[in-house]
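re: ur msg from earlier - yeah i can do the 4'-deoxy-4'-aminopyridoxal-5'-phosphate complex, just paste it... oh wait u already did. ok heres what im feeding in:
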Amino acid sequence: MPTLPLPSELELVQPTPPELSAADAERIARDAFGLRATARALGSHQDRNFLLERGDEPPVLLKIANPGTTSAELEAQSAAAARIAERAPGLRTPRSLAPAGAAEAAGAAEPGAATVREIEAGGQRLGARVLEFLDGGTLSGSGHLSPAVVRGIGELAARVDLALADFEAPGVERPHQWDLRRAPAVLDALLPYVGDAALRERISAAAREAWAVVERLAPELPVQAVHGDLTDDNVVWSDPLTRRPDGVIDLGDLNRGWTVGELAITLSSLLHHDGVDRRAALRAATAYHRLRPLSRAEAEALWPLVVLRAAVLVASGHHVVATDPGNAYAAENLGHELAILGAATAVPLAVQTALVLAATGHEPETLALPAHGPLLGGVRPEELAHVELGTTSPALHGGRWLEPDAEAAAARAALAAGAAVAATRFGEARLTRSTPFAQEAPANVALGVELALARPVELLAPWPGIVTAGEDGLELRGDGLVLRLDGAEASAPAGAAEPGAGAHVARGAAIGRAEAQLAVRVHRDGGATPPWFAPVADAAGWLALVADPSPLLVGAEHASTSAGDAALPSGTRAARELIARRDAVFAEVQEYYFEEPPAIVRGWRELLVDADGRVYLDALNNVTSIGHAHPRLVEAVTEQWQLLNTNSRFNYPAVVEYAERLASLVPDPLDTVFLVNSGSEAVDLALRLARAATGRRDILAVREAYHGWTDLSDAVSTSVADNPGALASRPDWVHTVDAPNPFRGRHRGAEASRYAGEAVAEVERLAAAGTPPGAFIAETYYGNAGGIALPDGYLAAVYEAVRRHGGVAVADEVQVGYGRLGEWFWGFEQQGVVPDVVAVAKAIGNGHPLGAVITTKEIAAAYRSQGYFFSSAGGSPVSSVVGSTVLDVIREEGLQQNAREVGGYFRDRLAELGERHPLVGAVHGSGFYLGLEFVRDRDRFEPATEETAAICERLLELGVIVQPTGDHQNVLKIKPPMCLGREGVDAFVAAVDRVLTTGW
Ligand code: PMP
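and the outut:
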C-alpha cells in the first residue's frame, strides 16, 4: 500500500487561537449560545477552553477551536460524540449543546443539528461550541494503572470503535499527522528534528520494520471513523477509588483510520505508566478483543502500529521542542514518549506479535525443527539424563537454589549417577535464575539447553548447512535456522575455503567437539538473536523465533527434554486453573488471598515461590515462625515419622519432653499442658476449662477480636471483618467490652486509659446482675487490629475485677505470643500480668497443626467434671517433635532477638514512610507484629479500606505478600517469618514506597 501523503508542513504546526479573557468567554457564551455563566479558563493543547459555571445548573465547557479546524470538522466531532452517546449507553462523552435558544433550552443538540457558532476574535473567524462538562479525572501522568483500569480503557476503546463503526460525516476525513496510515510521511517530515543521530536511526529502523509488516497487512485492515487519540489523557473516570474509565473526551483528533490503530494508540499511551509493562498493557488488548474481536490481520498489525505510534510520538515531541523551545510541557513529555518507544521495542516485533496473538485468542506462529539427525555422536538415548531446575525440583531443596553453583551441582549429580550427558530442559522456568527481593519477574525461562558431559562428545550436523566458528563456539546455518553450539570447538572443517568463512556440511557430518560443556540453541536465521533466558511473560512469544533443541540431542526418536509440551510455563494459567478447580470443591466461605492468586509451590525462609519461579517476600505468615521449609524441622519430622506416630494415650518421650518445655516457658503457677491441633481448639478448650473451674456460663470478651471457628471460640469472636453479623448474633451468655483501641476507638491517646475502667464497670454490672463472668478472654496484644499494644494496666485491672468475682483470666496468645513481639516472649508480659489459662497455637507448629493450653493443675483438674480429655493427633509424637524443634530453632537462631532488632528497624523504616506519605495514618506493633494503618485523612482517621486492598494487589505484583486486617481492613498486617533480615525489610519498604508514590 502506498503511504498516504502528508499534504503540507502546515499540518504539523497547529495554529493556536488568540488569547481570550474570561470576560470574552462570558460574552461569547451569552451572545452565541444564550448562556449566562461565569467563565474560568482551562488548559488545552490547541484550543481555548473555558468552564462555564451557571449557578445550580451543571457546568458546561466553552470550546473555541484553533483556526486550523473547519466548521465541518467541528460538526463531525459533535455528531461523533452524539453517536457514541447513543450507541454506547453508560459511556460518558461530552455532547455538544444546541447553540440556538436561551439558557433554559440548553440541552444536547439533536443529532444532525448545527452545534458550531462562528465567532470573531483577534481578527480571525473561529468555531465555538458548548459541550457538556464531564467531571472526574483522567489517567494522565505516569502513575500506576491497575489491571482493572487497563482492562477498562481497552473496553472503552472497543465501545467507541463499535459506536463509530459506520459513522460518516463530511468533516471526518482529513490529512492528519496522527493518522497511522500516514506514519512514513509524517516521520519523514519530523525525524530531521530529532537531533540525536543514534536516536533518530533507532526510531527510523523500528518504524521501517513495523511499516513493512503493516503495509503487507493493510488491505485486510478495516478503516472507519476513529476517536484518534483515545489515550490515558483522554479518558475520564467518575469513581476516584477505582479510577476505572467510564468516559471519553476530546474528539479533536476524530478522523478516519485503521480501527486497530485506535487500539494501538490506546496501548502505547499505557506504556509509560509505572508498572504497566507490555504484558500488563496487553490486558487492554484482551479486553478490547472481547467486545470487538480483532481479526488475525488486525492482531498481527497491532504491535507494529504501537511501534509506529511511539515513533511518531517521539519524533513529534522533538519537533515541538525544536520549533517551540519554550514549550515546557512538550519537553517534559519527551521522557514519557521515549519510555513508550523503549517499551514498544523492548523485544523483537515477532516476539511481541506472538504475545498479542496469544492474548487475543489467535494461534501464535512457532518455529519448527526440520528433519534432522542426532547432534551428539556416539551418545545412546539411555545415557542422557535430565537435570531438573524448575520450581519444585528436589535438587533445589533446602535453599540450594540460591547457591551460585546450584545448576552445576545438579548436573554433576546426574553425571555422578552414571549419565554420559546431563541436559537441562528447554522452556523450564528455572528457580536457580529467580531472584529474591526483586520487584520485577526474573528472566528465568531457558530458551536453549545446556549439557554437562562425562566424556568428550563429537558433534554432528543435524541438518545440512554452513558451519562457522566464532568466539563462543560453533554455528550451523541451514534451512532458515541457526543452530548455536556455545562451548564447542570446530573440528578441521573439510572443504572450508579459508578459516572463519564457513564450510558446507552434509547432514551427519562431524562438525566439532565438546569437552565437558555445551549450550545448544536453535533460532530463526536473519532475525534478532534471542537471549538464553527470557522472563515468563515473554517466553511464549520467543517461540516465534526459537525452537526446542532437545529432540536434536540424541536423535528424533528420543523423547524431548523440554519442560512440558509446546506450551511454555505459565504460572498464571496454572494458577487460574487451580483456582477454578478449588472453587468447584471448596465452599465459597473459604476465601483466598488476592484477586488472581499465584500458584505457590515452594517456600524458603521468608520467601515464597510461585509456579513461574517468581519469588515473593512473605510478610504475612506469622504461623511460619521459624521460616518456610526449615531443614531442621524437615529432618526431625522425617525421622519421627519413620520411628513412630501415634496418640498421646501411649507413653512415649516426645510428648513429655515437649509438654515440659512448654510448661517451663510460662511463669508460676502455670504448670499443666493440654495439646491440641489448632488455635480454635486451644481457645475452645481454654474456655471450657474456665467454665468447668468456675461453674459459670457467662463469658466476657473484647470486641473486634477473632478467637476461632469452633462453636465456643466463635461465640466470643466479634470481628466484623471475619463475620459482618457478629455482634448481632452473640448468644446471651457472651458479653463484650469495647476494643481498647487508642487509635480509632472511642477513647484515643491518653484517654485510652478509660477503657480499663469501663471494662471493670461491665464486670461489676454483670456480677450485680447475678451473671458474673466465668472467664474473661482477650488477646494480650491487640493482634487482630493490626498489632496494637493494650493501654498500660488494662489487663491488670480487668483480670483483678474478673478474679475478684470468681472468674478466670484467659489469654489468647495464638497470634502474638512465642517471641514474635521481640521485646516479650508472651504478650501478657507486656501487660505485666499472669493469666490463669493461656491458649497458644500457630507459631508453635510453624504451620504444622499444633495448639496448646497451659494452665494450673487446679483449673485443669476441673475438666474431670466434663469426662476425659482426648485429642487423637494432639500431642502426637510427630506434632511434639515439631513443637520441640520449633522451640530449639527459636532459641538457637535467636529469632526473638531478631524480631526485636530487625523488627525495630522495620518499625523505624515504616515510620519514615509515614513522614512522606499522608496515607500512612499510624505504625503499630512491636517486633515482627507490625501494622501499617492507611487513612484518607489524618484528622478524621477515615479508614482507607479500598486503597489498602488495591495496595496489597499491587504489592503482589512487586513481589511482596501482605494482607489487610482490622475491622476496617485498612491496616497492613506485617507478621513475617521471624528469620526475616534487613534486606527483606528494605525490599518491603521500597515496594510500599513505590506504590504510595506511583499509585495502585
Ligand atoms: N485466636 C486468634 C487471636 C487468632 O488470630 C486465631 C486465628 N486467626 C485463632 C485464635 C484461631 O486459630 P486457628 O486458625 O489455628 O484455629
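cool cool. The two ends are 43 Å apart (CA to CA). ping me if u need the other ligands too
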